[in-house]
Design goal:
The complex is a heterodimer of chains A (253) and B (366). Chain A has 253 residues and is α/β, with parallel strands linked by helices. Chain A has a domain of 144 residues: Rossmann fold. Chain A is 39% helix and 25% strand. Chain A is globular. Chain A starts with 5 loop residues before the first strand and ends with a helix. Chain B has 366 residues and is an all-alpha fold. Chain B is 79% helix and 0% strand. The relative contact order of chain B is 0.09. The chains are: A alpha/beta (253), B mainly alpha (366).
């Protein structure tokens, strides 16, 4: 078997948030030095994902999963360490980036697509597919503000699903729209994910979803890698860890 | 006398070198010292030469050995002042850990990013314009009606009540309002820019100044519509138009650059300082009255100050020049326009650099 190449390589990545949220002029005059508390969201994470692999990231709230994903997507770069994507195109599946409420769905497709890094021509070619997939009928030519929340997320999902990139980063977007559309989107996701060339990282709280989709899981705990490896193994350890917490909440009447 | 002539060129670079090496606090080698002095020599003398020639001294026929004492003193004073300021500022940057490599990297990145994101900026600007007028009853007519009504109000207020006596007063005031609005909207909008586009900034990467650029294109388009109204007014008021009206293009271009430069710097501070929008609001109002949107700065403010204010305030200068070329058929002050153009390029560059350096943490702050 041919040895697979790495699609994503993270080397000793640290991401800090310096908490200096509300600097106002009065405050700067009163205390000459604003104390910068540093919060480490991600600490020394190192891993690699091979081309075509699907990596799941699990962990409790606030363990730095989304931060890590954003940083792989390039929203901000890490404070320490390197992220090497080997020249692959990357997109963070996020719903409705850059939507303008006053404009029609058709125009928002182009606007959102361009923000995701596609040229206008590429989007024009795909736009019919997107519209078909979203199944929102005549609403495509009406302003987005008239959409129901279901239609909004259907359109948004279709945009990110149809504009394909080499690396896909998914942050809990598997449940949109009604039951029928949910199934359809799940199938589409599987189709996208199972593409041999596509590398995917999924962040989720749902153990069953990860079990179904991933061939590797990373457990992130307080910004550090607790465990990385075989799906079943890691998920088993994770549910064992989470079990007492679940029990506790059940005891409360 | 011979020595003074020579010293005239060397006092400033030597001072600059002394300050530079003191501020940097590192012992630099001989070779580096000579290089440093040479760089400062050319830089300081070039600037002083440029200033002298701008002040009306013909530098082509100028001879350092026969010139007047008064000029020599002025020359030394100016170049030494610069020689103290420039290393001070430069070392301030250098001590923050800004390196030559970083400067080169960001400058190159600016052009590639601009190329990459320009289509999006245009598209977003178009979408913004469209979003503004869809569903409103009079559609794009508002872009004409709004400035026109403003012009009527100001004309009545200042033309009738305060009895202003400029030639072609309605057009005069309309040019002022239009250009000032472009500047003030761009600057005050830039302070809140990153926060206002939170939904985009937190989810995809784009160079943050693209947001400002797109916004300025929206404002710029509206300004051009207003200039169409001005064209109509020129016909109605039978203003004599000369060829110099073509000079309005570079004037508008420099206005765009200045706004972009000031805006991009304020945009950076707007992210961190929550109450900056109040300060800019106050400062802009103050500046509006100093800029002469409804009077001629050089004429109305007493003699030495009027002319200085008009030249030192880029917006006032541009508005005055615009009136000169459109209404009064005068020749453009190319020299000063070029100086402001260069200044705005520097501002833009500083803005870009600060944004590139800090935009990583913007997402985490807002």
């Amino acid at each position: 078997m041919k040895k697979k190449k790495n699609a994503i390589e993270l080397q000793d990545v640290c991401i800090n948030y310096s908490i200096m949220n509300n600097v106002s002029i009065r405050k700067t005059f009163l205390h000459k030095k604003v104390r910068n508390e540093v919060f480490e969201a991600v600490k020394h994470v190192t891993f690699a994902v091979q081309e075509g692999d699907i990596l799941g990231i699990i962990g409790k709230n606030g363990s730095g999963k989304s931060t890590l994903l954003k940083s792989i997507a390039g929203v901000f770069s890490p404070n320490v360490g390197t992220i090497d994507l080997k020249g692959h195109s990357v997109s963070l599946m996020s719903l409705g980036v850059g939507f303008k409420e006053q404009l029609s769905g058709r125009e928002n497709i182009i606007l959102s697509g361009m923000l995701l890094g596609f040229s206008e021509k590429e989007i024009q070619e795909r736009s019919q597919d997107i519209i078909d997939f979203a199944e929102i009928g005549d609403f495509i030519d009406r302003p987005v503000r008239t959409y129901s929340s279901g239609m909004y997320s259907k359109l948004a999902f279709s945009i990110t699903a149809m504009l394909e990139t080499d690396i896909m980063l998914v942050d809990e977007v598997l449940s949109v729209g009604d039951e029928q559309f949910r199934l359809k989107s799940l199938n589409k996701m599987k189709e996208l994910i199972n593409d041999r060339k596509r590398t995917v990282i999924i962040v989720s709280h749902s153990i069953s979803t990860l079990k179904e989709l991933c061939n590797q899981v990373m457990w992130l705990h307080d910004g550090e890698v607790r465990k990385l490896g075989n799906t079943d193994e890691v998920l088993k350890k994770y549910s064992e860890y989470m079990a007492p917490a679940v029990k506790k909440t059940e005891e409360v009447p | 006398m011979f020595f003074i002539s020579i010293a005239m060129f060397f006092i400033a670079p030597l001072t600059a070198w002394k300050i530079h090496s003191r501020k940097r606090g590192v012992d630099t080698g001989d070779k580096r010292n000579i290089k440093l002095i040479a760089v400062y020599f050319f830089l300081l003398n070039a600037i002083t030469f440029a200033v002298s020639s701008y002040r009306g001294i013909d530098m082509r026929r100028w001879n350092p050995f026969t010139t007047t004492v008064s000029f020599r003193i002025k020359y030394i004073a100016l170049s030494t002042l610069l020689g103290m300021l420039i290393p001070w500022v430069l070392c301030g940057f250098l001590n923050k850990g800004i390196t030559m490599a970083e400067i080169k990297r960001h400058s190159a990145r600016f052009f590639s990013d601009m190329k990459k994101y320009f289509p999006y900026a245009v598209r977003a600007a178009k979408a913004d314009l469209k979003a503004e007028v869809t569903n409103s009853f009079l559609d794009w007519m508002w872009w004409l009606i709004e400035p026109f009504c403003m012009m009527l109000i100001y004309t009545v207020m200042f033309g009738v009540v305060f009895d202003a006596a400029e030639e072609h007063f309605p057009v005069f005031i309309f040019i002022g309002i239009t250009m000032w609005n472009f500047f003030t909207r761009g600057v005050s909008g830039s302070v809140e820019m990153v926060r206002a586009n939170r939904s985009i900034v937190t989810r995809v990467y784009l160079p943050k100044y693209i947001l400002l650029f797109s916004k300025l294109m929206v404002n710029g388009f509206k300004m051009l519509v207003s200039f169409a109204v001005i064209a109509a007014m020129l016909v109605i008021f039978r203003v004599r138009i000369t060829v110099s009206i073509l000079c309005m293009v570079p004037v508008l271009l420099v206005l765009f650059l200045i706004t972009f430069g000031v805006g991009s710097i304020l945009m950076h501070y707007g992210v961190y300082v929550n109450d900056l929008s109040y300060i800019t609001g106050i400062l802009l109002t103050m500046m509006m009255y100093l800029t002469g949107t409804f009077y001629a700065v050089a004429k109305r403010i007493p003699a030495p100050f009027g002319a200085v204010l008009e030249k030192a305030n880029p917006v006032a200068f541009l508005i005055a020049e615009m009136r000169n070329v459109v209404l009064y058929g005068q020749v453009l002050d190319w020299k000063l326009l070029f100086v402001w153009c260069a200044a705005s390029v520097i501002l833009i560059w500083v803005g870009m650099f600060t944004i590139y350096r800090n935009e990583n943490s913007y997402v985490k702050v807002i």
